[in-house]
Design brief:
heterodimer, A: 495 residues, alpha+beta, Vanillyl-alcohol Oxidase, Chain A, domain 3, 2 domains, 7-stranded antiparallel sheet, 5-stranded antiparallel sheet, 19 strands, disordered N terminus, B: 370 residues, Cytochrome Bc1 Complex, Chain D, domain 2, 3 domains, 37% helix
Chain lengths: 495, 370
């Protein structure tokens, strides 16, 4: 038995010792009930440790809404929700769905802004309670349950001086994030542009309920699909085997605030200078409204540009050196405000970033592009008309990596995303219409989109642009091969 | 890489009897010598591996009986006194792996306390995992346990020792399995459990906290306290942006559907097995905080057990890192800052600016869980 297995076993023994269901004594409490005898729910419920909820259940609507992390709740209703407690539950649920003629989708953190996992028919399997982290420090490997949050993974790995390119939002579980490719931290240096290329293997429940290992050496074609197939994947990944990296000693950073009028200049800096920096310097900027300024104030008064630079460095001195080239640029001297010499950590990064990912009413969309100046020209024309109280474009330099052959097949030098957040129900429809209009226009300068943050509800016809034509065709072919009965829902809008 | 210590087996055996009390379990405010409290203390001592407490709680001439054939079940038969009890657990540790136990309620009649529950363990020799119903019956006199009887479905246990797979509940024995399905069981489909879906990622599936998410244990806290804190996060009374690990709760709490949702999720947490309290009463107060502890005890109780009337939370259910962080937050205006949070304001006023990091660390160590 390897040390990893021993460690893993120890961890999960502990977990199982603590996870003791208390059943009797609560029988009279509201919400406790045996599924109707002879019903489909009872049939499955009797076989699993998790929870089966069907449309007839009194609390179905709360369960349905609880599957979506954000506050805007897509109005789609699966026939059955299965909250799994263990891997066998997932296997049983998939087998049951096959027998009952239900198509399956999966959710974990429910962060998909499009709630693409929520369909009007079939079964939704919630795998958020499949957690656990086992680390083999010497091999720099971690075996991680899909429900583990990126922040938790970072903190746990830090205990062993390791790191992984997790999501920028700490409350995103690793699962959907990685399966869609993963625009993660320091991917330019660590994982060839996208986080999923640091996945060494997965354990995946297939359409027939089998649990398979997929890696470059086992079921390699399945592994090809796992690395980027995202919500179109025909299986449920229940464990990730991750390649980890030496943890940076410091995330040495700076943030500069610019006037909206500097948008072209900041974008030009991203386009020309940032690519000259070391690969482990991550640079992005966002355009956001100043708090307290009236929504109808002129855009120059209301909007500011926040340029954020972070070097994943081995020392403070190295961090300073890595940022020096950018800091010598004349534009930096024109910053209205600045924070420099920031000795950051993953903990600090995730805390600082929390406000950027509100658990509110929101949506978003994105493109990959090699032409940031043209993309920003489109955005600049539209930003003053944004109907959402808060609209935040983000531009992130991705590097120029050559990605391995995988379903994750689209990337650009730049990731351009736009997040819209609203407060009142009446603001939702105009926000969605505005976003759709902007991104239809941005298609002219795009190299496709990142599936995880794409407006799948607004432009489902463009989902295929998240993949190269060749990858899209192969994904379809592999789906027919691995899921001939169409047990799993395909991409949103397609099944 | 840390490897399991030799003590792990014994601790696991003690966990078999640990205080995983159900909804009707008693949670005494302070150590008492009534029968239910004594039994409760015993379960807590088991969970901590607190051998000193075992010595204190078990009478020297106590009898300890596990009904089953001693010739085939090493821990079967009757033993006497604390040494006999220690031998019982040694035998359990030698032969069983991964024990999981539940205590569902305490039924008290005079000096007798009956505790129905279940036990689930894997027999090391055969690899078979059994799950058996049981009742523990204690007799308590003068604050000590004079008799313990375990009425368990020992036929099932015996079959597991004999390698009979008909009693195996392991379903393949996957290392990531965390629970075992049961037929005809009642299933929690409550509103509270649904809402807790979002909470679990930080606080853990069992609400016992995840240190790597900076999220505290929620079990064992009074429901009113939990509801008040959730409401404070929702209403801007807690979780300022510079409260690094508190601010994320603002979004989470605000997303809970209304006041009824808050009540529901708190009720769900209240029904979960409780993480045992830190053994504060048995800890010596360090000299550096000997003048401060009485102030804390005024509201939080002598053992940090919390005081409902004072609206003070249980400190002995929280981990040390969290306690230390909250003391810093109160001291620096990141908590207890809102005029409409009188309990928080009282606490903030009680933490002097002069309270240094050494004292904070000592207080956290004194009251908190390891």
């Amino acid at each position: 038995m390897s040390q990893l297995e021993l460690w893993s076993r120890r961890r999960f023994v502990k977990a199982s010792t603590l996870a003791v269901p208390v059943i009797a004594g609560l029988a009279g409490a509201a919400g406790f009930a045996a599924p109707l005898a002879g019903s489909a729910a009872a049939d499955l419920q009797n076989r699993i440790a998790g929870t089966v909820v069907v449309k007839d259940d009194e609390n179905y609507e709360v369960w349905r809404q609880s599957m979506i992390w954000q506050r805007a709740k897509a109005d789609r209703r699966p026939d059955m929700i299965v909250q799994a407690e263990r891997i066998e539950d997932v296997q049983e649920a998939v087998r049951f769905a096959a027998t009952a003629g239900m198509k399956v989708t999966t959710r974990c953190g429910g962060h998909s802004m499009a709630a693409c996992f929520l369909r009007d028919r079939g079964m939704l399997i919630d795998i958020s309670r499949l957690d656990g982290i086992a680390v083999d420090k010497a091999a720099k490997l971690a075996v991680v349950g899909p429900g583990v949050f990126c922040r938790g993974l970072a903190e746990r790995l830090a205990q062993d001086d390791l790191a992984f390119p997790g999501a920028h939002c700490g409350t995103v579980p690793i699962s959907g994030f990685l399966l869609g490719g993963g625009v993660g931290m320091n991917t330019n240096a660590w994982s060839q542009g996208m986080s999923v290329f640091a996945v060494k293997a997965v354990d995946i429940v297939m359409a027939d309920g089998r649990l398979l290992r997929a890696s470059e050496s086992e079921n390699a074609d399945l592994f090809w699909a796992v690395r980027g197939g995202g919500p179109g994947l025909f299986g449920v990944v229940v464990r990730f085997h991750l390649q980890c990296f030496d943890a940076p000693k410091v995330i040495w950073g700076a943030t500069y605030t610019f006037a909206f009028a500097e948008l072209d200049a900041v974008t030009r800096l991203m386009d020309k200078l940032v690519p000259q920096l070391d690969k482990d310097v991550e640079v992005l900027y966002s355009v956001a409204a100043l708090p307290g300024v009236a929504e109808d104030a002129p855009v120059d008064q209301r909007q500011r540009i926040y340029l954020d630079v972070n070097a994943f460095a081995a020392s403070e001195a190295e961090g300073r050196r890595k940022l020096a080239l950018l800091q010598r640029d004349p534009l930096i001297a024109r910053a209205l405000d600045k924070v420099e010499d920031r000795a950051g950590s993953f903990d600090r990064y995730y805390s600082d970033n929390e406000a950027a990912f509100p658990q509110a009413y929101w949506m978003g969309d994105n493109i990959w592009t090699d032409r940031p100046m043209e993309a920003i020209a489109v955005l600049k024309r539209h930003i003053p008309d944004c109907p959402a109280p808060r609209g935040t474009p983000v531009v992130l330099y991705m590097g120029t990596n050559s990605m391995p052959d995988a379903a994750c097949s689209r990337i650009g030098r730049f990731y351009v995303a736009y997040y819209l957040e609203w407060d009142e129900p009446a603001q939702e429809a105009p926000s969605r219409a505005y976003c759709l209009k902007v991104f239809k226009e941005l298609k002219a300068v795009a190299k496709g989109s990142y599936i995880n943050e794409m407006d799948q509800e607004g432009r489902p016809e463009d989902i295929r642009d998240c993949y190269s034509p060749k990858a899209w065709a192969r994904l379809e072919q592999l789906r027919r091969q691995w899921d001939p009965q169409g047990q799993f829902h395909g991409f949103y809008g397609q099944s | 890489m840390k490897m399991p210590s030799p003590k792990v087996g014994l601790l696991a055996a003690l966990l078999l009897f640990s205080g995983v009390a159900g909804a009707k379990a008693l949670t005494p405010e302070k150590p008492a010598d009534d029968p239910a409290s004594v039994v409760h203390q015993l379960y807590e001592a088991f969970e901590h591996g607190d051998m000193a407490a075992l010595e204190r709680l078990i009478a020297k001439d106590a009898s300890w009986t596990y009904y089953g054939p001693a010739s085939q079940l090493p821990f079967g038969g009757t033993r006497h006194g604390p040494a006999g009890v220690a031998d019982f657990f040694a035998k359990v540790a030698e032969t069983l792996d991964n024990p999981v136990a539940t205590q569902l309620e305490y039924v008290v009649t005079g000096d007798t306390v009956a505790v129905p529950g279940t036990e689930e363990s894997t027999v090391r020799a055969t690899g078979i995992r059994y799950k058996a119903d049981l009742v523990h019956v204690f007799k308590v006199r003068n604050g000590k346990i004079v008799s313990f009887e375990e009425f368990i479905d020992s036929g099932k246990v015996l079959l597991a020792f004999q390698g009979d797979k008909s009693v195996d509940v392991s379903a393949g024995g996957d290392a990531m399995a965390t629970a075992t399905p049961g037929s005809r069981r009642l299933v929690d489909k409550s509103v509270g459990k649904a809402i807790f879906t979002t909470c679990a990622g930080c606080h853990g599936n069992d609400a016992k906290g995840l240190n790597y998410m900076y999220a505290p244990n929620l079990t064992g806290q009074h429901s009113d306290y939990l509801a008040r804190q959730l409401t404070n996060f929702r209403d801007g009374k807690r979780g300022k942006m510079d409260d690094a690990h508190g601010f994320p709760m603002v979004g989470r709490a605000t997303a809970i559907p209304g006041a009824d949702g808050v009540k529901a999720v708190v009720a769900y947490v209240a029904g979960l097995p409780k993480l045992a309290a830190a053994p504060v009463a048995s800890r010596a107060v360090p000299a550096s905080i000997v003048d401060i502890v009485p102030t804390c005890a005024t509201c939080h109780g002598a053992a940090g057990e919390g005081n409902f009337d004072m609206q003070a939370p249980a400190l002995n259910r929280l981990d040390r890192t969290y306690i230390a962080q909250q003391l810093v937050n109160f001291r620096t205006g990141k908590r207890g800052y809102h005029a409409d949070d009188p309990q928080g304001a009282l606490m903030a006023a009680s933490v002097p600016e002069s309270l240094g990091s050494d004292a904070i660390a000592a207080l956290a160590k004194h009251y908190g869980r390891d």
